[in-house]
Amino acid sequence: MNFAANLTMLFTEYDFLDRFEKAYKNNFKAVEYLFPYDYNPQELKNLLNEFNLKQALHNLPAGDWNNGERGIACHPDRIDEFKNGVDTAIEYAKTLNCNQLNCLIGIPPEGISEEELENLIIDNLKYASDKLKNEEIILLIEAINTIDIPGFYLNTTEQAKAIINKVKSDNIFIQYDAYHMQIMEGNLSLTLRDNIEMIKHIQIADHPGRNEPGTGEINYDFLFKYIQSIGYEGYIGCEYNPYNGTENGLKWLNK
């Protein structure tokens, strides 16, 4: 299976730029992280090349993350900012040879009707999917649980599918986060099976706690085998909070 170390959450004992080497030394073949935009893309590319790592994924710019913003595709007064962010993300993705970008839709502002909001999101996703298609990059969207990010626009697989169907593009797919979906809907294996053609990236963490596989209620030994059995060939992003240090918690990876 193709596991990607999420360098935003793993190896945080080390400076960010040192985490690439740590991922390599711990048998990861790929990495992902929330955002690359604080770093020179060529510097990141050099690290990927040095340690023979694939950049599996990063997100479009998502607003002021440190002050609680979780995406801007749902903000009617920030359309230009969203479009500029798509351009910036493409520049980074091309340098990093990253062929998937995730759009965090965000927490909608007050005062916008449901119809206006949906139309805005569809328009923004259509714009992004078309721009990315021209560069042979796939657009992903992600559903997130209502506990970790209250008010986030997408919360279930069915909602994500509905938006994708309304965008009417052949270049937009689902990033399926097993941690978020265990909280919101459960039934992980059958949901993956029934939607595998729409799922191009999977992320994992156990629940409760959002720690490494084997620390909670999700039977990852079964789920990994099941994911293989249904023909999934994409990356699995390890987006979890290590319970007691990253390297101490990697026994599950080396089974």
Describe the protein's architecture and organization.
The chain starts with a strand and ends in a 17-residue tail after the last strand. The mean pLDDT is 98. β7 (199-204), α8 and β8 (235-238) form a beta-alpha-beta unit. The protein contains eight helices and eight strands. It is globular, with a radius of gyration of 17 Å. It has 255 residues and is an alpha/beta fold.
Instruction: Could you tell me the CATH topology label.
Output: TIM Barrel
* Total helical elements: 8
* Strands side by side in the biggest sheet: 1-2-3-4-5-6-7-8
Could you describe the largest sheet, including whether it forms a barrel? Answer: 8 strands, parallel, barrel
Radius of gyration: 17 Å
Q: Kindly report the name of the CATH homologous superfamily.
A: Divalent-metal-dependent TIM barrel enzymes
Distance linking N and C termini: 12 Å
The overall average pLDDT, rounded, is 98
Uncertain parts: none
Secondary structure elements and their pairing?
Layout: E1 2-6, H1 19-25, E2 30-32, H2 41-50, E3 54-59, H3 79-96, E4 100-103, H4 114-134, E5 138-142, H5 157-167, E6 172-177, H6 178-184, H7 188-194, E7 199-204, H8 220-229, E8 235-238
Parallel strand pairs: 1-2, 1-8, 2-3, 3-4, 4-5, 5-6, 6-7, 7-8
Short summary:
The chain has 255 residues and is an alpha/beta fold. Helix content is 36%, strand content 15%.
Features:
about 260 residues; alpha/beta; TIM Barrel; 8-stranded parallel beta barrel; 8 helices; globular
